[in-house]
Structures are given as structure tokens and as C-alpha cells.
Amino acid sequence: MDLSSIKEIFLLIPQKILNLLENMLSEKRRVFFVAIGALFTFLLVIILISVNTSSGQGDGRGGVNAAERLVTISIPHDELFFPDEPDFVPDFLLEREPRLIWTMEDIRPYWRVPGNYDFWRNELRSEVDLLMDGVP
Fold it and tell me: Which of 47, 49, 94, 106 would give a disulfide with 102, using CB separation of 3.0 to 4.6 Å?
């Protein structure tokens, strides 16, 4: 294969592209812009591929294997998944006696003040009345 013929072909490519673009511009404007967008996308892909293969922690091969790169940037298992549930049920605390009297300080973390007093008072009365009707 003669390198001079390959060189001539590569030197004629820009002229052919310009002629093609001029024809497209005169005939169809939309096709022209699509071709320009495709050309820039193609060039961008080539640049990105060349940058990714030439840079890296090479061991003489010119780049890093994709699997090695994936291992170096992987997310730890603990951050992705919940920890396993324990295999045992915790013991019930029998030594703690239930409270017979609650103070206001004991109740405060669990108590929420209802917004509409009359509505809830009527709701409670109707529920209590229904419960009391069932008592003989």
C-alpha cells in the first residue's frame, strides 16, 4: 500500500466535506445543521476516547482496564444496602415496672395538641356513646 495515495485521500477529505456542506446549505438548511451537529458529536467522541485511553495509571499498556477503573470508583457495600437484621429477638425487660402515674413532664414528648377542639370533642363523644351503647 502506498502511503502517498493515503496522504492525498486525507488531504482531499476536507475539500470534499466543504463541497458537500455548500451543496447542503444551498439545498436544505436543516440537513446542513444536522450534519454539522453529527460532525461535532463525532469529534467529541473521538476526543473523549483518546483522552480516556491515554490518561490513567498505566502499567505500560497505555491505559487502565475498565474493570479496574470500576473497582477503584465503586461505592462501599455499607452505603448501598441496609445492614442485616439480627438473628435473635431482644429480651423483654421484665425488671421495668409499668408506670401507674404519669406526670406532665413524662407525657410532654408524646402529646400533640389537636387543632380543632370542638370537632375532636364531638368525635370522642360519639365514639364513647357508641361504646357505651354496647355495654349491658
Answer: 106
DSSP-derived 3-state class of residue 1: coil
Q: Specify the amino acid at residue 57.
A: Q
Contact of 35 with 24, CB cutoff 8 Å: yes
Computed over every residue of the chain, the mean pLDDT equals 77
Q: Can you give the pTM of this predicted structure?
A: 0.25
Within 10 angstroms of residue 134's Cβ, the number of other Cβ atoms is: 6
Residues of the chain falling short of pLDDT 50: 62
CA dist 9 and 2 (Å) reads: 11
Tell me the C-alpha distance between 18 and 25, whole Å: 10
- Picking from 9, 35, 41, 37, the residue whose alpha carbon sits closest to that of residue 22 is 35
Q: How far is CA 84 from the centre of its chain?
A: 23
**Of residues 71, 40, 65, the one with CA closest to residue 53:** 65
Residues 6+ apart with CB under 8 A from 35: 20, 21, 24
